[in-house]
Amino acid sequence: MEERDFYDERAESRTHTMTCPHCRQEGQYEIGWLVRRKKNQVGRNADERDRAKFAKFQSYMVRRDDMLGCKNIRCRKRFEIAGIQSVAFI
Which domain of life is it from (predicted)? Predict the structure, then answer.
């Protein structure tokens, strides 16, 4: 079985407070995440090795966005997201 068989995937966006490194203005930005939640049970076609893998897995989120555009009308420069982890366990 593949890893995708153990998780339910869903795209989500969450708001974070970020500061533009160019103009130093703070703002609320929506960042896209891919949320992978562990299923309640293993599929019927799983063997013992798959069941052992499933027991170790846990739910997590992967950040989809790496760059944001500044919301300040005078700035509008793109900046890299540095203060937020790319993978977060739920």
Answer: Bacteria
| Segment 68-82, tens digit of pLDDT | 999 999 999 999 998
pTM for this predicted structure: 0.82
Contact status, residue 5 vs residue 56, Cβ threshold 8 Å: no
Q: Are 89 and 57 in contact (CB under 8 A)?
A: no
For 78, the 3-state DSSP assignment is strand
Residue entry with tokens 């500044």? 70
Q: Domain map of the chain by residue range?
A: 3-89
CA dist 46 and 68 (Å) reads 41
- The CA-atom distances, in angstroms, between 41 and each of 21, 54, 89 are 45, 9, 19
